């Protein structure tokens, strides 16, 4: 039996996809936080100008 059997390939792909999903989720979270920060900054800037 070689290393590249179905079971090992599936295990590897599952692990890879889980890591990719985690990275994608973290990136989305960072973008959401950045949007919030920018929104608050713009609100504060508008309040100071009035």
From TrEMBL:
Keyword vocabulary terms for this entry: Coiled coil
Ranges in coiled-coil conformation: 9-36
Name of protein: DUF4169 domain-containing protein
Species this chain originates from: Flavobacterium palustre
């Amino acid at each position: 039996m070689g290393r590249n059997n179905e079971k090992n390939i599936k295990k590897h792909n599952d692990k890879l996809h889980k890591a990719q999903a985690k990275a994608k989720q973290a990136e989305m979270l960072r973008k959401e936080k950045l949007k919030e920060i920018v929104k608050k900054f713009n609100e504060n800037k508008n309040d100071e100008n009035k």
